[in-house]
Automatic annotation (TrEMBL):
InterPro entries: Nitroreductase, Nitroreductase-like, Nitroreductase/BluB
Single GO MF annotation: oxidoreductase activity
Keyword Flavoprotein: yes
Domain Nitroreductase: 159-212
Keywords attached to this entry: Flavoprotein, FMN, Oxidoreductase
Gene3D superfamilies referenced in this protein's UniProt entry, alphabetically: NADH Oxidase (3.40.109.10)
PANTHER family the record matches: IODOTYROSINE DEIODINASE 1, NADPH NITROREDUCTASE
Protein name: Nitroreductase
Length: 323
């Protein structure tokens, strides 16, 4: 009798299956990575400029920044933005960038290179801001940070559970929007904020998505909203092939804590699937192929009393190494 499990776990079989999956990941990455065809793709171009803008802010936030620092880098960003404007016109990228350049010029004063000033004036000559954005740096105090961070975070974390028994009550969409807004403070590489959140609330489509995921049997019908977190591969470059999962993971955890703070229950559901299933996600549920799925979060109201898995955690000493 053939042992199917033994064949499935055979080294050669696993190697072939892994190669097929890696080939799919490679094709998806090479078709979308930000390092290729930047000026022909608005999202890639946008992300590349955003990195440069953030580098100016980082420079301004150093302990002792030098007036007039980063001349060549800033000229390069201004040059890229001029090309971007020629291709795509003004958009919210300029709303974000202008206050950063303003802060730099204000800080550097008379030591600001004249070529930077001239290119800046030329770039923003006919620009009318549509958004009110802040840029540069702001001064904060340890006292204020301590004042507003004095919460019992240990207990807050300890009381977050993966819920598999929601009340079934409808969740107000405004609560979902507020959680997404709170989570926007999640850090990302060079402030690229590459995430996208798909909020599935339509009963039929949500049910089909949960059937696709499979890891919610026995409770999926009580999930009010399914939040799919993805990250845009076009925001990353050759040395960042895995960064989407880092940024997306950080955002997802922040979002779950935000939902928890608003009194909602959550359950993170894996979307780590074989490529054949991932293709269905793209084809059937409107997810863009340049976005990698990070996690699916089930959201719902809590019952007054319900059971959760204890899921005992390892002692932190098992994974903490002091160097």
């Amino acid at each position: 009798m053939i042992n199917k499990e033994k064949i499935k776990n055979n080294r050669l079989v696993v190697s072939i299956r892994l190669f097929i999956e890696m080939l799919y990941d490679y094709k998806r990455l090479i078709n979308n990575i930000g390092a290729i065809g930047i000026e022909k793709d608005r999202e890639k171009f946008y992300a590349n400029i955003l990195i440069g803008i953030h580098s100016i802010e980082k420079g301004l936030s150093l302990p002792e920044p030098r007036a007039g620092f980063g001349k060549l880098k800033i000229l390069n960003v201004l040059s890229l933005m001029r090309s971007y404007k020629e291709y795509y016109g003004y958009d919210n990228l300029f709303d974000l960038a202008k206050p950063v350049f303003d802060a730099y010029i204000s800080f550097s004063g008379e030591k600001t290179d004249r070529e930077i000033v001239n290119r800046y004036n030329d770039l923003f000559e006919n620009f009318s801001p549509e958004l009110s954005c802040l840029g540069g740096t702001m001064q904060v105090s340890k006292i204020d940070i301590f004042k507003y961070s004095k919460v019992d975070f240990a207990t807050f974390c300890d009381k977050r559970f993966s819920v598999r028994d929601f009340s079934g009550l409808l969740v107000d969409l405004d609560l979902i929007k507020e959680a997404v807004r709170i989570a926007s403070k999640s850090p990302s590489a060079c402030n690229r904020q590459p995430w996208h959140i798909y909020a599935f609330r339509d009963i039929i489509i949500k049910s089909e998505l949960l059937d696709w995921q499979l890891g919610n049997k026995g409770f999926g019908n009580t999930i009010d909203t399914a939040l799919l977190i993805t990250c845009n591969l076009k925001s990353y470059f050759i040395n960042e092939s895995h960064q989407a999962y880092v940024d997306g993971g950080l955002y997802a955890m922040t979002l779950m804590y935000a939902l928890h703070s608003l009194g909602l229950g959550t359950i993170p559901l894996t979307v780590a699937m074989m490529s054949s299933k991932t293709k269905i996600l793209y084809r059937k549920f409107g997810v863009k192929e340049n976005e990698v799925p990070i996690v699916l979060i089930g959201v719902g109201h809590l019952k007054d009393i319900f059971n959760v898995a204890i899921s005992e955690r390892f002692a932190y000493s098992n994974y903490l190494t002091i160097i």
